[in-house]
Amino acid sequence: MVKTHKDLDVWKQSIDFVTEIYQITDGFPKSELYGLTSQIRRAAISIPSNIAEGATRNHKTEFKQFLFISLSSAAELETQLIISGKLNYLEPKKLEDLLQILNSISRMLQGLIKSISTK
């Protein structure tokens, strides 16, 4: 039984992912600080933040809406990471690893949405 958002594996994994994203984007060119770096960080932070906000809502419908926002942020982040790879800001192997983790988070979000929908 979920007591708070902190009990959700998807929240825990996305928090760890945000930490990794911050470390990686520290190595991006300084000219991207207010561009791609900022966008990537905002999208990454949005994932666990919306899970947390939605989990505090009184209705399943509201929680699902916030989970969909998290899922949208994951798609946005995927796009930004691919662009970063194309600009050679990320090594191909690192990009592949990040996309794999992000895909896992997205699948977990979809599973949680489905679980909430069937209850």
Protein described:
The chain has one domain: de novo design (two linked rop proteins). By secondary structure, it is an all-alpha fold. The model has no long low-confidence stretch (mean pLDDT 95). The longest helix has 27 residues, at 60-86. The chain has helices at residues 9-25, 36-55, 60-86, 92-118. The protein is elongated and about 45 Å long. 76% of the residues lie in helices and 0% in strands.
Short description:
With 119 residues, the protein is mainly α.
Uncertain regions: pLDDT < 50 for 5+ in a row? none
Radius of gyration: 15 Å
Distance between the termini: 13 Å
User: Structural class, judged by helices and strands?
Assistant: mainly alpha
Strand content: under 5%
Mean pLDDT: 95
Which fold name corresponds to the CATH topology? de novo design (two linked rop proteins)
Indicate the overall shape: elongated
The biggest beta sheet, please? none
Q: Count helical runs.
A: 4
Could you spell the SSE succession in H and E letters? HHHH
Architecture per CATH nomenclature, i.e. the level-2 architecture: Up-down Bundle
Provide the CATH top-level class: Mainly Alpha
Helix and strand topology:
Blueprint: H1 9-25, H2 36-55, H3 60-86, H4 92-118
Summary keywords:
119 residues; mainly alpha; de novo design (two linked rop proteins); 76% helix; 0% strand; elongated
